[in-house]
Amino acid sequence: MVLNKDTAKKTAELLLQINAIKLKPENPFTWASGWQSPIYCDNRIILSYPIIRNYIREEMAKQVEELYGKPDVIAGVATGAIGIGMLVAEYLGLPFVYVRPEPKSHGRQNQIEGQLSPNQNVVVIEDLISTGKSSLNAVKALKEAGANVKGMVAIFTYGFNVADENFKTEDIELHTLSDYPNLIQQASDTNYIKEEQLNTLLQWKSNPAVWKP
Ligand SMILES: O=P(O)(O)OC[C@H]1O[C@H](OP(=O)(O)OP(=O)(O)O)[C@H](O)[C@@H]1O
Ligand SMILES: O=C(O)c1cc(=O)[nH]c(=O)[nH]1
């Protein structure tokens, strides 16, 4: 759920400006879920732009504070949200941990890196939600470590039903700076996407799990 319309529009505009939105309908991207997609939103690129990453950091930090006050710890979902999660934690003056997809196979065999104690209030930072599987896998690890997961703030969501259902099942609140409708609106207003590409994107969005070029 998008909390602030202006932030949603501005974030979409910035993602387009830094070419974080990639379109490849003829030779689709393979997503973490295994889905084939004509679009890829690479939020990692934000970290390469100091002014834009400061904007994203501040908007995420504001949402964390507005929704949850001061949690004890900020957790970033590895690897995409380690950088931005750390920036949000730094801005709020809070401790930071990051959560691997699975425990490391050597060393200390940690899945959660950093210091986390049972019963601490944690807000999770994620860069992007497709199915929500990666983020909720991190939530599961945090809960198993005894954390009190208050909710999640992410930069972008495609807003798929499957993700909504997954978050509902796990009883985790999700807020995002921007989402797919805002991105598409902004991309068509600025002629970033052509009509033919827009049609592909609309068709893909109606049934992404089985879409083929
Ligand atoms: O909602 P989902 O279907 O789980 O997909 C979204 C996830 O995919 C990306 O991570 P990726 O697995 O590409 O790894 P990375 O963060 O290490 O780049 C992204 O950073 C999310 O964590
Ligand atoms: O689902 C994914 O793997 C995914 C999609 C996307 O647009 N961006 C990203 O970083 N990951």
UniProtKB/TrEMBL annotation:
One BP annotation, GO: 'de novo' UMP biosynthetic process
Reactions catalysed according to its record: orotidine 5'-phosphate + diphosphate = orotate + 5-phospho-alpha-D-ribose 1-diphosphate
InterPro entries for this protein: OPRT, Or_phspho_trans_dom, PRTase-like, PRTase_dom
GO molecular function: magnesium ion binding; orotate phosphoribosyltransferase activity
Superkingdom field: Bacteria
Binding site for orotate: 130
Pathway noted in the entry: Pyrimidine metabolism; UMP biosynthesis via de novo pathway; UMP from orotate: step 1/2
Cofactor(s) recorded in Swiss-Prot or TrEMBL: Mg(2+)
Binding site for 5-phospho-alpha-D-ribose 1-diphosphate: 100, 104, 106, 126-134
Chain segments annotated as transmembrane: 73-99
EC number: 2.4.2.10
Keywords of the record: Glycosyltransferase, Magnesium, Membrane, Pyrimidine biosynthesis, Transferase, Transmembrane, Transmembrane helix
Residue ranges of domain Phosphoribosyltransferase in the record: 53-151
Family, as annotated: Belongs to the purine/pyrimidine phosphoribosyltransferase family. PyrE subfamily.
HAMAP family: PyrE
Quaternary structure, from the entry: Homodimer.
Described purpose of this protein according to its UniProt entry: Catalyzes the transfer of a ribosyl phosphate group from 5-phosphoribose 1-diphosphate to orotate, leading to the formation of orotidine monophosphate (OMP).
Protein name: Orotate phosphoribosyltransferase
